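Researcher: Please predict.
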Amino acid sequence: MSDILDALRERIEHGGRLSRREAVELVQEATVHDLGELGLLARERRHGRQAYYVYNQHLNYTNICENRCRFCAYSKRRGEKGGFTYSAAQARARLEERQDAPIREVHIVGGLNPALPYEYYLELIRTVKQARPGARVKAFTAVEIAFLADTYGKSQTTVLEELMAAGLDALPGGGAEVFDPQLRQKLCPEKVSGQRWLDIHRIAHGLGLPTNATMLFGHIEGWEERLDHLEALRELQDETGGFLCFIPLPYQPKNNRLGGVGPDGQDYLRMIALSRLFLDNVSHLKAYWVMAGIKPAQLALWAGADDFDGTLVEERIGHAAGAEAPAGMTVPQLEQAIAAAGFSAVERDTFFQPVATA
């Protein structure tokens, strides 16, 4: 194994690509320390000791959803206790509660609510732009885009073009889960296929709309399914170059029908490191502190991650499934967490451009 590691170190230093076979060998034989060392090497080659964060706010506009994903603790059926949908005015009020904060990104995702008219989604984007004219809007997963196209008889391209005209700046990466069709039937049979998720992101990239990508891991998948997922993302990125960031999302096992225990700390760090090594064409890798926990996210910076996400303010989806991290962090808290891990905090915008701060 030492000869393989030495060869990979040399290749990483020169920007070489990890093959599928080498990735399999690493996950089967390398220790978490070996993987972390390689991940850090690849990360430092790109970003040095900088670690990014964004001053953002999450807006989960509805939890009414016609899908019933087995791992989801957030969704409600129409009429079910605890269900909600924000009007545009209520969404504006949520944003205005933080009017004095220099929010640079508003992240909008929700359930698939068949009671909402198509115009609602355009008005929601316009409302956010009016309330936060200086912020970028990252909104609606590929699953939501497919739902809008199917429900309102529009093409996916038209939906994206009309949302962009209303002010959409980027797509989040949610809804990817794990692409394997057989596992998807067990996890989220009502949800669009992994291939359709990829197709919608391909269309977005072709329109000049950048996107993120995710994978939900640590439930019933194995490393083969994880590598299939990463390989599909790498191939699409080779084709379009449209992915800004990859976010490995550790499964949260509480309050849902799937149950289980979720990934442990070593599995999380191995996933971070392998993602950094395999996705050589995706510039940024996020340690999503909300679902990983603050301390594991700090360790992830040493295993290949370069982004610590952001302030969030009010995250609902991961917390519904038992995430134990805070629902939001202040900028000083984020910067302290990054500095305590041994990295230099850099505030960024949605497109990972550093922003000037006073």
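Model: The longest strand covers residues 243-250.
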